[in-house]
Amino acid sequence: MLEYIKGIVTEKGEGFIVVEKGGLGFKIYTPSEFDGNEVRVYLKLFIKDEEVVLYGFKTREERDLFVQLISVSGIGVKHALSIMGRFSVGEIIDILEEGDVDRLMDVPGIGKKTAQRIIFELKGKLSFIENELIDDVVSALVGLGFDKKEAYRSAREAVKETKELNKAVKKALQKLSEKG
Prior knowledge:
The protein is of the alpha+beta class. It folds into three domains: 4-57, CATH 2.40.50.140; 60-122, DNA polymerase, domain 1, CATH 1.10.150.20; 132-179, Helicase, Ruva Protein, domain 3 (Orthogonal Bundle). It contains eight helices and five strands; from the N terminus they run βββββαααααααα. A five-stranded mixed barrel has the order 1-2-3-5-4. Strand 1 and strand 2 (16-21) form a beta hairpin. Helix 1 packs across helix 2 (77-86), helix 6 (132-143) packs across helix 7 and helix 7 packs across helix 8 (165-179). It is globular. The model has no long low-confidence stretch (mean pLDDT 88).
């Protein structure tokens, strides 16, 4: 229904911002820090009882991850926001793929059973790619015969070091050869 809102941040509080657009102020709960005045916030709308609540994220990937997290049995909005406030999208994907229960347990309110459930239900199911450059590097590596999951990890690491496609592919290949 609502994809995003682009407007001016008029207020910041702990866990929320107010974005003004067209003379209206929208209170948006968020785990993200928004810098500057004009922002684009990707939204998830909830209608709870008779209240409309907006949750906002810097990227579509963050929003999609939030939706995946709250789909896990026993994980509500508060837990999902706590997890996302503690880790980046890439870190959460790594935690899930590596089955790192201990790191998830670092989040307040997440115990061992809850962490295990999150990993069990989401491991291998987060198929979105963080950005276009990573997608291009993964495509190149898969085209060369590498496993998609390993290619993705190496691509994510390589893109942290360079934003040029050719250099990122070379760095990802180096990382893959070091592991193999």
